[in-house]
Write a structure and sequence with these properties.
This protein is of the alpha+beta class and 235 residues long. It has 2 domains: 93 residues, Phosphatidylinositol 3-kinase, Chain A, CATH 1.10.555; 90 residues, Ubiquitin-like (UB roll) (Roll). The protein contains 9 helices and 5 strands. It has a 5-stranded mixed β-sheet. The two termini are 95 Å apart. The relative contact order is 0.08. This is Rho GTPase activating protein 18. InterPro entries: RHG40/28/18_ubiquitin (IPR057323), Rho_GTPase_activation_prot (IPR008936), RhoGAP_dom (IPR000198).
Length: 235
């Protein structure tokens, strides 16, 4: 019980405004010195507490008998509190250990959470960077935007491996193959027109070899997301 009372007093004193707390500290130190000379001044700790308690703890009654009894109980209780404050004043200004431990625990948990949040942000940042890097590596000149009405045709086995082709109403698949074969270089001279074909790959189909008479603009409108590749049927 005594320990709990001291803890309660300790917390109440720490909650006081700084100016009030400093004033109380000076007063209690003075009263302790008064009680230390009890052999000369007859002011024991109990007497000092009884004299000073009414000055710090006031009770306003209304003159009735019940109130008088309450005042007596209040006076005895406040004198006991005053005695505790004088006798154990050195303990009143110290932050209790359980509060220190609680604050330390909260700080530790806060630091762990902050460290975890930093690690998560770092991971997300790295993932975003890796994805962006991967996208850049995957992106080729063929993926670049081309003007409206233009397709990019790939010919990995020919010297001219890529060419942007403007679509017209009359343009046919065979015309595109002929345009690539007209680029005389390297192994192109060994290939004949009947050996290579234009293929439609992806989009809304799998893969198919186009007839030379296929009108490209009409086909492009049906499958705008397809890739166009020139290769031989044996490749």
């Amino acid at each position: 019980m005594k320990k709990q009372q001291l803890q309660a007093l300790n917390l109440l004193v720490l909650l006081l405004p700084e100016a009030n707390r400093d004033t109380l500290k000076v007063l209690l130190e003075f009263l302790q010195r008064v009680a230390a000379h009890r052999e000369k001044n007859k002011m024991t700790l109990k007497n000092v507490a009884m004299v000073m308690a009414p000055n710090l703890f006031t009770f306003h009654g209304f003159g009735s008998k019940t109130i008088e009894q309450s005042e007596f109980v209040m006076a005895a209780g406040t004198a006991n509190v005053m005695r505790f404050m004088i006798q154990y004043q050195n303990l009143l200004w110290t932050i209790p250990k359980f509060i220190v431990n609680q604050v330390r625990k909260q700080n530790t948990e806060s630091q762990k959470k902050e460290k975890k949040d930093k690690a998560m942000k770092k991971l997300l940042k790295k993932m975003a960077y890796d994805r962006e890097k991967h996208d850049k590596q995957e992106k080729t000149p063929n993926d670049a935007d081309v003007p409206q009405g233009v397709i990019r045709v790939q010919a990995p086995h020919l010297s001219k491996v890529s060419m942007a082709i403007q679509l017209t109403e009359e343009l046919k698949a065979g015309d595109i193959v002929a345009r690539f074969l007209s680029q005389k270089s390297g192994n192109v001279q060994m290939l004949k027109k009947e050996e290579v074909f234009l293929y439609e790959i992806g989009g809304n189909i799998g893969e198919r070899c186009l007839d030379d008479e296929t009108y490209m603009k009409d086909l492009y409108q049906l499958n705008p997301n397809a890739e166009w590749v020139i290769k031989s049927k044996q490749s």
